[in-house]
């Protein structure tokens, strides 16, 4: 990462809206920033656990991290009653500081960072675990993360077909139109489309498996990033236990990744019940993809990912 200029200090740290963040860092650049962090010698296991603090009608999430010259923290609020007030259920702000002096260098809209860094992390993993001649992308979900994952995945493979699955026809059509706007051949689909998919992306709020994992071909890569709660999952036990499973960090996954935790239920050693590989080892070629069976990336979102992209945003400043 480029070191910040410590010879000047503005009276107020600049504010970056979601639009500013998207303008400063493209999906491809976000993927490069995530890779750069993982190749820098940084260990995601050093990230503090996500902290929950009760507040008002909901709670706050505190997510600090330090990578080289940059230090930062996301403060996210979760207020369940907000949608009835016409406000988002989750809101966030990010404070970026230089590590040497801990001077605030920028404030960034946390939602904008999340929208960019989450698909970037998924794309880093999928780029290494998806067959080179992949042609079919199947997406579950129609929200902002589903759309962002379509764009990020389209940048790593030349898909001939994008298939969208969602609960509401209108949302599916919106996602289909979005994919077509990127120049992709897209259509609405069904769970049966998983049977010949090359890459499957799960970006939903579902708490139960979305499809029968037994139909997923050994050649496929599956990304699941819809939840960071231990009692919710998008993938069934059969798929998780027969796959090579890549996670951001083993400790974090065993604490927050319901897909992994529930698949290992009843085992005396959850870390052995599921074959877990850490993303940093995959990126640095210390572990190779297992092409003989499905490859799964289960993401829960970690503090370092926000910091990696936030630093990249500020590095674009003149």
What does it look like?
Helix 2 crosses helix 4, helix 2 packs across helix 12 and helix 4 packs across helix 12. Helix 6 links the parallel strand 8 and strand 9. The longest helix is centred in the middle third of the chain and has 20 residues. This protein is α/β, with parallel strands linked by helices. The strands form 2 sheets. Strands 9-8-7-10-11-14-12-13 form an 8-stranded parallel β-sheet.
Short précis:
The protein is 34% helix and 23% strand. It is of the alpha/beta class and 318 residues long.
Key traits:
23% strand, eight-stranded parallel β-sheet, 14 strands, alpha/beta, 12 helices, 318 residues, six-stranded mixed β-sheet
Q: How far apart, in Å, are the first and last alpha carbons?
A: 16 Å
Please state the overall shape, judged from the principal axes of the Cα atoms. globular
Q: How does the helix and strand content classify structurally?
A: alpha/beta
What gyration radius follows from the Cα positions, in whole Å? 19 Å
Low-confidence stretches: none
Strand tally is 14
- Share of helix, binned: 25-40%
- Strand count, sense and closure of the main sheet? 8 strands, parallel
Number of helices: 12
Strand content: 15-25%
- Side by side, the strands of the main sheet go 9-8-7-10-11-14-12-13
SSE run: EHHEEEHEEHEHEHEEEHEHHHEHEH
Summed over residues and divided by their number, the pLDDT gives a mean of 92
């Amino acid at each position: 990462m480029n070191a910040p200029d410590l010879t000047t200090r503005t009276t107020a740290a600049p504010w970056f809206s979601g639009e500013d963040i998207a303008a400063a860092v493209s999906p491809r650049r976000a993927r490069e920033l995530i890779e750069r962090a993982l190749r820098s010698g940084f260990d995601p296991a050093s990230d503090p656990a996500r902290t929950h603090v009760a507040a008002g009608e909901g709670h706050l999430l505190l997510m600090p991290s330090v990578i080289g010259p940059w230090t930062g923290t996301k403060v996210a609020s979760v207020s369940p009653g907000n949608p009835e007030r016409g406000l988002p259920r989750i809101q966030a702000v990010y404070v970026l500081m230089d590590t040497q002096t801990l001077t605030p260098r920028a404030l960034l809209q946390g939602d904008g960072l999340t929208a960019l860094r989450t698909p970037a992390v998924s794309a880093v993993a999928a780029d290494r675990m998806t067959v080179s001649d992949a042609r079919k992308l199947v997406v579950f979900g129609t929200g902002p993360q589903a759309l962002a994952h379509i764009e990020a995945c389209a940048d790593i493979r030349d898909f001939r077909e994008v298939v969208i699955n969602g609960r509401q026809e209108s949302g599916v059509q919106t996602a289909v139109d979005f994919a077509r706007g990127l120049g992709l051949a897209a259509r609405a689909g069904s769970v049966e489309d998983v049977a010949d998919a090359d890459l499957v992306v799960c970006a939903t709020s579902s708490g139960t498996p979305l499809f029968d994992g037994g139909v997923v071909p050994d050649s496929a890569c599956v990304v699941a990033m819809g939840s960071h709660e231990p009692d919710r999952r998008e993938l069934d036990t059969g798929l998780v236990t027969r796959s090579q499973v890549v996670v951001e960090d083993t400790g974090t996954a065993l604490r927050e990744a319901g897909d992994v935790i529930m698949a290992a239920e009843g085992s005396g050693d959850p870390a052995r019940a599921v074959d877990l590989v850490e993303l940093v080892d995959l990126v640095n070629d210390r572990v190779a993809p297992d092409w003989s069976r499905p490859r799964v990336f289960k993401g829960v979102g970690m503090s370092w990912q926000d910091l990696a992209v936030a630093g990249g945003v500020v590095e674009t400043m003149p």
